[in-house]
Amino acid sequence: MHFVTLRAVTTLYRCPTPTDLLCPCGRVARALRRAGVAYEEVRVPHRRGRRAQVERLTGQRRVPVLALDDGEAVCDSHRIVELIAAGGAGPAAASRPPAGGR
């Protein structure tokens, strides 16, 4: 995994579930808030066949997807949360070295 700093507003594509407690999308939203990352939220339809916007970004239709300000899109809640936990997010991330020397 390479080091990415989430400085600008990012976009979280997520399911329309109204709570952040029941799904992987909510797990990512909670991690972003804890890290102090500003993000826009786009709720996509439950039906994967109606997620053309996500498919254009990533080539697949699963959420969550975090679209970074540099144009990269990160799929899978575990990968997104790892990115945030590794110091790729938050107000002090720009001055912090990557975890584990990566």
Low-pLDDT segments, ≥5 res? 90-102
Q: What order do the SSEs take from the amino end to the carboxyl end, as H and E?
A: EHEHEEH
Q: Determine the strand fraction and express it as a percent band.
A: 15-25%
What's the CATH C level? Alpha Beta
Count the E strands: 4
Class based on secondary structure composition and strand pairing? alpha+beta
Helix run count? 3
Give me the Rg, rounded. 13 Å
Which fold name corresponds to the CATH topology? Glutaredoxin
Mean pLDDT: 82
Number of domains: 1
Largest β sheet strand count, sense and barrel closure:
4 strands, mixed
Portion of residues within helices: 25-40%
- In whole angstroms, the N-to-C terminal distance is 8 Å
CATH homology superfamily name = Glutaredoxin
Query: What's the CATH architecture name?
Result: 3-Layer(aba) Sandwich
Strand order of the largest sheet: 2-1-3-4
Query: What sort of overall outline do the alpha carbons produce when their principal axes are compared?
Result: globular
Description:
With 102 residues, this protein is α+β, with helices and mostly antiparallel strands. It has three helices and four strands, in the order βαβαββα. It has helices spanning 24-35, 52-58, 77-88, and strands spanning 10-14, 39-43, 65-67, 73-75. A four-stranded mixed β-sheet has the order 2-1-3-4, with helices on both faces. α1 packs parallel to α3 (77-88). The longest helix has 12 residues, at 24-35. The protein is globular and about 35 Å long. The termini are close together.
